[in-house]
Specification:
Blueprint lengths: L1 E10 L4 H11 L3 E9 L4 E10 L2 H13 L3 E7 L2 E15 L6 H9 L3 E8 L7 E10 L3 H15 L2 E4 L2
Antiparallel strand pairs: 1-3, 1-4, 2-3, 4-5, 5-7, 5-8, 6-7
Helix pairs in contact: 1-2
């Protein structure tokens, strides 16, 4: 058996904790502890420790959680980092909607996952601003930034990004 420690980011709504724990149990995980704390933007950070038979069982749990829209920000196996996800925010200023926002989203989703988007569009002929939150595996951070910079250059957007 392997000991796994995870950090999940859950929406602060009734039923989300049980929704996050079910795949662990369903795929053979034996839950050791669950702790949570409220924090950023209506999200609850939940630390779950469990034992699982092997790597393939852990992969099934991870896929099931992601399929349910549960954000996994970190996985440690036996105290060693296995997976780390981070969230980056970008503001795109320009004719974001008119320059095929679907294309922009699809290209970003090839590297990470757009988890939130807010659009301000004062009038159809004026520039819009789009705040985009992107979840990404920490290893792909540089690749995502280069991609967003390339998109902004191609589509003549001004980019404001988080530090």
């Amino acid at each position: 058996m392997m000991k796994v420690d995870t950090v999940l980011k859950l929406k602060d709504v009734p039923g989300m904790l049980i929704k996050a724990l079910e795949p662990i149990s369903t795929h053979g995980g034996n839950i050791i502890s669950v702790t949570h704390s409220r924090g950023e933007k209506g999200l609850v950070s939940v630390h779950v420790s469990f034992k699982v038979r092997d790597q393939s069982s852990l992969n099934l749990i991870r896929k099931a959680l992601e399929k349910q829209g549960i954000h996994i920000s970190e996985i440690e196996i036996e105290g060693r980092t296995y997976y780390t996800k981070k969230s980056l925010s970008f503001i795109l200023l320009g004719h974001v909607i008119d320059t095929d926002i679907r294309d922009t989203l699809d290209r970003i989703n090839d590297v990470g996952m757009v988890s939130g988007i807010e659009v301000v569009m004062p009038a159809p002929n004026q520039k819009s601003s789009v705040l985009m939150d992107v979840e990404i595996d920490e290893k792909s951070n540089g690749e995502l930034i280069r991609l967003v910079e390339r998109i902004c250059k191609e589509k003549d957007f001004l980019l404001v990004r988080s530090l």
